[in-house]
Each structure stands twice: as C-alpha cells, then as structure tokens.
TrEMBL record:
Protein name: Arylsulfatase B
One Pfam entry name: Sulfatase
Keyword Metal-binding among record annotations: yes
Family listed: Belongs to the sulfatase family.
Amino acid sequence: MNVREVSLVFICILARVDAKQPNIVFILADDLGWNDVGYHGSEIRTPHVDRLSAQGVRLEGYYVQPLCTPSRNQLMTGRYQIHTGLQHQIIWPCQPYCVPLDERLLPQILRDAGYNTHMVGKWHLGMFQRDCLPTRRGFQSFFGYLTGSEDYYTHHRCYFISPLNITRCALDLRDGEDVTTRYTGRYSTELFTQRAADIIHQHTPDKPLFLYLALQAVHGPMQVPERYVTPYSFIKDKLRREYAGMVSVMDEAVGNVSKALQDAGLWNNTVLVFSTGTVI
C-alpha cells in the first residue's frame, strides 16, 4: 500500500452512507527507523504503538519517501511527487516554492466532505507566500512550524547563508498564521501532543474530526528531557540513548492522544493512523 492508496482509503471512507462518518486522526512521526519500535524487536520500549499494532492493522508493505517534503507531499496530494515537482529535495526556508496551488490537498477534500480539519506540528510543504500556508490549504487551524526542523525547546532554526558567510536564526512556531512567543522552553513533542488533546476535547459532535498531528519527533537535533533517557542507561552510545528517549516521548504522545479520544467518547468512531514521514 503506498501513500496515494492511503489517501484513497480516506476518500472511500467518506463515501460510506450506511454509517456515521468516522473521525480521522493521523499521527506522523519523523525519521523513525523501521527497527525502532518494540513490535519489531527493538530495545526501545514503545508500549502504546505496540498496542495499536496488536489491536489494529499493520501496513507492512506501505512505503514513504526518504525525505520530508516529498513524503508529506504524497500524503497530502495522493500523488507521486514527480507529478507535483517535489521529487528532488526538501523545500528550504528561502526557496520560493510550495505544493502547487492548483493541487487539492487531503484537508480540502475532507473539509468539503463536512469534516472539521486541524493540523498540529510540522508542515514543510512551502511557505514563501500566504496561500501556501496550512490554513490556506484546507486546515481550519494550525499550530506548529513551517520549516524542516528546529530546536525542540526554543523553537528557533538557524541556517548558514554561504554567499554572505553568516548564520541567521529565527523563531518558527505559529498559532494560525502568526508567530507565537508564548511557548519558549516547552518541549515540542509534549507541546504538540497537548494541543492535539485540546482539539480532541473541544471537538463538538456535529461534524466529524480530521486531526493531522505531524510530530517533530524523532527528527534531529537530538534533544530530550533527561527522565526519558535514564531508562536506557544500558545503551552505551550516547546519541542512541538520546534517540531512544525521543522515541519514548513519541510513544507517550501516541498513548496520550489515544486516551484523549477515549475520554472524549470519540474512540469507537475514529480511524487512527500512525506512520513515519521518513525512514532512516
């Protein structure tokens, strides 16, 4: 099953007339390795993802792209990236490009089908003009960042500009289309998960919910609260220990979103999809 087929599955769900339209929650990890989940035999503990795997359907023949932008483009458009001009690389912050504006994205289709559409986390599909932003491409709300990666705590991203031989840093955390400074110091995985849970709890049942939670985890830089690293003291390599801790926070996020759905009474009518956006 490829990314296009996943989008088609969503569209087929909408065509059902014999049942209430299900809520759709799509949790997308970033740079998660195939062997870095518990049910694949990893030393990293992922009990919440393991539970979903045991109780749900594994798409073991489902592939993503090795780079962020092409993979997310496929998910949002349902089209292989060569058809949208995004097959070469990621979209860099200064690059004047985004997913072509004549492409209808998944949230636009779901919104037109009656869904409330919300996005939390990483966009990375272009931002050089306002029409490229998530809130102009079908999402009714957006809380997250537009570039490819950033500091998990300060939410700043620094880039070296080689022609000028200088480094520039900027804050990239937005609530809607506006930059917000309220969350400096909050670890992004926990911050984004809390916002996702808030959206779930505030959702009213008059319309179905589409929530796209695109986590920063476990993309670099290697940053994680120490309490998540401590259980992996048996791992000798420092970076691997930190990575394991980051995976644990990601897994906890999956558990917290699942619990929010259950507490809000939405669990039994929700299609929950967990995937990675890229594989390392």
